[in-house]
Amino acid sequence: MVSEHFDILIIGAGPAGLSFARSLGRLPLKVLILERSSQTTLVEPPEDGREIALTHLSVNLMKESGAWQRLPEDGASPIEGAKVFDGESSYSLDFDRESADLEALGYLVPNHLIRKAFYEVVSSQANIEIRTESVVENVSTDAERGYVTLTSGEVITANLIAAADTRFSEMRRKMGVSATLKDFSRTAIVCRMEHSRSHQQTALECFHYGRTTAVLPMQGKRSSVVITVNSRDAHQYTEMSEEEFNRNIEKQLQGMLGEMTLLGKRHVYPLVAVHANQFVARRFALIGDAAVGMHPVTAHGFNLGLRGQATLAKAIESAITEGRDIGSEEVLKVYESTHMRISRVLYHGTNIVVGLFTHESVAAKLARKVTLRLANNITPVKRLITESLTESELEQPSGLKEMVQRLPGLPLPRFPLRGPIKQAAQVVSKRIPEKMNPLKRIGFL
Ligand SMILES: Cc1cc2nc3c(=O)[nH]c(=O)nc-3n(C[C@H](O)[C@H](O)[C@H](O)COP(=O)(O)OP(=O)(O)OC[C@H]3O[C@@H](n4cnc5c(N)ncnc54)[C@H](O)[C@@H]3O)c2cc1C
C-alpha cells in the first residue's frame, strides 16, 4: 500500500545523499531521505579514519551549502605542499601552493565532520524530511513515478529517486544498471598518528614496492596515515603491536617526521573501484559512490560525488524554472552526460596511477621514474596534475590547454607503454578526442 508521495526521494544519508538534499533544499520541492542508520549516528557520526582531501571546488560547494561554516575551528587543515616518492630514492615529484598560486593545494577534513556538518544544515530545512532506521528493500519505476519499498513493507512514491547507497549500491542492481568493478586486491589501513617533527603542512606519498604509505597533514604535529598493501598482508598491520607499528611507519618514512605514535584505532578498507555504466534510468539517478567509487590514491571520491550532486541539482532547478518534469529523461541525461565526461577521465586516470605505482615489473619501475621526472620538469604537465588534484581551474584546465598547444613542437622522445599500463592508457585514450590526446602526442601509445 502506498503511504506517501514526494517530489524527490534519496536513498542513503551519507555525505553524497545529504549534500544533494541540501542543494535541493532551496527549491520548491518536498524531499525525503531514507537512511539505514540511527539518528544518533547521523547527529554524531563516529570517526571512521577517513580524512578527506577536499579540492577548492568542494570547499566552495560546501561554503555555498553552509556546511563548511559548521565545521569546528580546527576541523580543516590546509595542505600546502605534496611530495611523491618512488622506491627508496630521495627524488620526489613536488607540488606547492606558491607555484600553484593558491592559498593551499586543498584542505583535509575528517569524514565524520563532513557528515555531521551536512546533517546539521539539512535537518534545519523545512522541506526535507530524514527518516532514520529505514532500510530500502526494493526500488522500481514506471513512466509516472518511482516506488520504494521499505523492509517494514511500507511503499513510498516519488517523481524522482536518487540512490546514494554506497559503491556496492543494491539499488543500482535492482534498477538493472550495470557497473564496472575493479577489485585491486589491496587494502588500505588508515589511522591518525602524532610525530615529533613538523609536517610543514605537506602531504607525503611514498610508493614503495608492494606497499604505499601516504601521510596527510592534520592540525599540529599530527597526520592521517594511509598504508596500502596487498589484502593478503593487511592483517599484519592491524595485528602488530602499537610499538611495532610506530617503528614500522618511522622506517617507511625514513625518519622524515621523526618519532611516530599511533593515536586511536587502525581502520581497514578493502579497495574496490566502481564506475556505473549509466548514471540514470527511468525516473532514477545514481549519485556519490553509487555512481562512481574511486580508489583513494588521487583523493577524488567525495570531491567527485559533491560535484555530481551539484550538477544534478542544477539540472533539476533548470527543469523547474522551465516548467519541465524533474524526473524526465532529458533532465536526467543532462546530469549523466556532464558527470560521465568528468568522471570517466578521473576514474580511468586514477586506475592508471594505481597500476603504474603497484606493478613491480622492471618496466613499471622504469615508467614510474620517467613519469615522476616528466611531471616534475614539464611545466604544463605539472600544472595539469595540480589543477586536476586541486580543482582550482574549474572549466578548462589551463595546464591541459597549454600542453596540447605545445605538444606538436616538443622534441620529446617516445616512451611506449606496455602491459596493463598500456591497456589502461588505451581505455582512457578512447575517451579523449584525437586532437586533444596527450597520450598519443607524447608517444605513450
Ligand atoms: C580510506 C579512504 C580514504 C578516502 N579519502 C578520500 C579523499 O581524500 N577525498 C575524497 O574526495 N574522497 C575520499 N574517499 C572517498 C569518500 O569517503 C567517499 O567517496 C564518500 O564517503 C562516499 O559517500 P556516499 O554518500 O556516496 O556513500 P557512503 O558514505 O557509503 O554512504 C551511503 C549511505 O547509504 C546508506 N544506505 C545504504 N544502503 C541503504 C539502504 N538499502 N537503505 C537505506 N540506507 C542505505 C548507508 O547506511 C550510508 O549511510 C576516501 C575513501 C576511503 C575508503
What's a concise summary of this model?
The protein has 445 residues and is α+β, with helices and mostly antiparallel strands. 38% of the residues lie in helices and 28% in strands.
Keywords:
445 residues; alpha+beta; 8-stranded mixed β-sheet; 19 strands; 28% strand; binds flavin-adenine dinucleotide
Beta-strand level of the residues, as a percent range? Answer: 25-35%
Structural class: alpha+beta
CATH fold assignment of the domain at 2-44 and 56-70 and 110-181 and 274-346 = FAD/NAD(P)-binding domain
Count of DSSP E strands? 19
Low-confidence stretches: 395-415
CATH architecture of the domain at 2-44 and 56-70 and 110-181 and 274-346: 3-Layer(bba) Sandwich
Instruction: Give the overall pLDDT as a whole number.
Output: 86
- What characteristic shape results from the CA principal axes? globular
- Give the distance, in angstroms, between the N- and C-terminal Cα atoms: 58 Å
Bound molecules: flavin-adenine dinucleotide
CATH class of the domain at 2-44 and 56-70 and 110-181 and 274-346: Alpha Beta
CATH superfamily of the domain at 2-44 and 56-70 and 110-181 and 274-346: FAD/NAD(P)-binding domain
- Number of helical segments with 4 or more residues: 15
Integer-rounded radius of gyration: 22 Å
The percent range for helix content is: 25-40%
Largest sheet: 8 strands, mixed
